[in-house]
Amino acid sequence: MAVEMLSYIEKESPVHRLSGGTKLIIFIMWSSAAMLTYDTRILLFLFIISMTIFIVSKVHIRDIAFVLIFILIFLLLNNIAIYLFSPQEGVRIYGTNHVLFEIAGRYNMTLEQIFYQFNITLKYFVVIPAALLFIVTTHPSEFAASLHRIGINYKIAYSVSLALRYIPDIQRDFRTIAQAQQARGIDLSKNEKLAKRIKNAGAIILPLILSSLDRIEVISNAMELRGFGKNKKRTWYSIKPFKRADYITIAVGAVILTVSLIITFHDGSRFYNPFL
C-alpha cells in the first residue's frame, strides 16, 4: 500500500516522543530564525541541525518524496522568477558587481546574484524539513491540543485537526475512484495525450468532491449531535504533558533563536556580505 502523503507516520524516535506543543513552539522559533536572517553562516548551521534532526526522527525520504519534489519544483520556479524580475537584486544588496558573463540587456550573471539566491534556497532547505517533520511526527489530535494550548480557540484547532485527518482519506478515495474509472475504460496513463488525460481526470475529480462533501455533512451532523462547541473550553484525550525533554528542547530552541538574531542584527543588517 502506498504511503499516505502528509499523514502521521508512527515511529519510535526522540522527535515523536516530544509533546505536540513543544514541536509547535520549536517550529515557530525555527521558522522565525530562518526567515529573519540572510546570514549564510547561520543558515548553514541551521541546515546542518535540520538534517541531523531529520535523521534522528527516522522518517525516510521516500515517505515524503512526493511533497518534497513538489516543493523543490516550486523552489526552482521561485528562483527563476526572482532572476527574471530582479536580476540585479544581489548587486543592490551587497553593493558590489562581479560579473561572470553577460546575457542580454540588464540580464547578466553576477556572483552577488548567485549568492543572494543561494541564501534564499538555503532558507527553504532549513524550513522544509522542520515543517514536514512537524506534520508527519505529530498526531492530528495532539496537534489540535497543541494549538489550543498556545491560546487558539479549540474550534479552530479542531478544524485544523480534521483537515489533517482528511488528507489520507482523500488520497484513499482518489485511488479508489481512479481504479474504478479505469476499470470502466477511462485511460489516465501516459498512453493518452495530455489534453485527453486532463479531460478524463474530471471523471475522478467530480466524484471525489461529492464524496468529500458528503463526508463533511456526516461529520458536521455527528459533531452537532454531540454538542460540539457548546462549552467555551474542552479537554483533550491525546494531549501529552510536558516532560524534561520538552523543556530542554524549548530552551535550546530559544537559545538558537536568540543567538541567530544577535549575530544577524549586530551590524544593523540582515545580510552577511562576503564581498567587502
Summary of the model, kept short:
InterPro entries: ABC/ECF_trnsptr_transmembrane (IPR003339). Its main location: membrane. The chain is mainly alpha-helical.
Report on this structure.
The chain has 276 residues and is mainly α. It has two domains: 16-138 and 243-276, no CATH class; 140-237, no CATH class. 67% of the residues lie in helices and 4% in strands. It is built from ten helices and two strands. The protein has a two-stranded antiparallel sheet. β1 and β2 form a beta hairpin. The protein is flat and about 65 Å long. The relative contact order is 0.17. The model has no long low-confidence stretch (mean pLDDT 83).
Q: If you average the pLDDT, what whole number results?
A: 83
β-sheet strand percentage: under 5%
Structural class by sheet pairing and helices: mainly alpha
Biggest sheet features? 2 strands, antiparallel
Number of helices: 10
Q: What gross morphology would you assign?
A: flat
Q: What are the segments in which pLDDT stays under 50 over at least 5 consecutive residues?
A: none
Reading side by side through the largest sheet, how are the strands ordered? Answer: 1-2
Number of strand elements: 2
Helix/strand order: HHHHHEEHHHHH
Number of domains: 2
Spatial separation of the terminal alpha carbons: 55 Å
The whole-angstrom Rg is: 23 Å
Query: Helicity level, as a percent range?
Result: 55-70%
Protein name: Energy-coupling factor transporter transmembrane component T family protein
InterPro entries: ABC/ECF_trnsptr_transmembrane
Transmembrane segments: 24-57, 64-85, 114-136, 247-266
Organism: Oceanobacillus aidingensis
